[in-house]
């Protein structure tokens, strides 16, 4: 009786979950494109120290690649959620959402480290801070990092939704009390 109530409640929530899933996936696309655009077009020239552009920093290139992958995957997954034969691949979506979320964490951490060093430098190895010289570059990178963090939050919620979809396919494990009742 209890399992039928759970099944009824999960069936009534599926349209809401599908709408939330599709909305989050579609919102990831423009956010990721904005991250890519902000990063790729970010360039600042300084007469004394030279020019600084995203291609000079490997961590920024990595974030651009991961943002492109996440935008493409999110778009494909949003389309696939409406195609019946692909909707049944819950494990694939679950694993893919997890992988994208982890990649987003790593690329965000790389850019966060770059920004930290740009703002604070590292006196032990005589790196001075660079944001007083390249302020516009640093400000655009902060905005890109905030947008990247929003995309990461979307993927964390998507990972939870896809985990719910996968693990709701199975019966909950029996408690020790239920096992004893079945033996008698």
In short:
The chain has 184 residues and is mainly α.
Task: Walk me through this protein's architecture.
- With 184 residues, this protein is mainly alpha-helical.
- 75% of the residues lie in helices and 4% in strands.
- It has six helices and two strands.
- The chain has helices at residues 2-40, 58-80, 84-87, 90-120, 135-167, 176-183; strands at 43-46, 50-53.
- The chain has a two-stranded antiparallel ribbon with strand order 1-2.
- Strand 1 and strand 2 (50-53) form a beta hairpin.
- The radius of gyration is 22 Å and the shape is elongated.
- Residues 1-12 have low confidence and may be disordered.
Structural class: mainly alpha
Number of strands: 2
Spatial strand arrangement across the major sheet: 1-2
Question: In angstroms, what separates the terminal alpha carbons?
Answer: 20 Å
Portion of residues in helices? over 70%
Kindly estimate the percentage of residues that lie in beta strands according to DSSP.
under 5%
Parts with pLDDT < 50 across at least 5 consecutive residues = 1-12
In N-to-C order, the SSE pattern is HEEHHHHH
Radius of gyration: 22 Å
What's the story with the biggest beta sheet? 2 strands, antiparallel
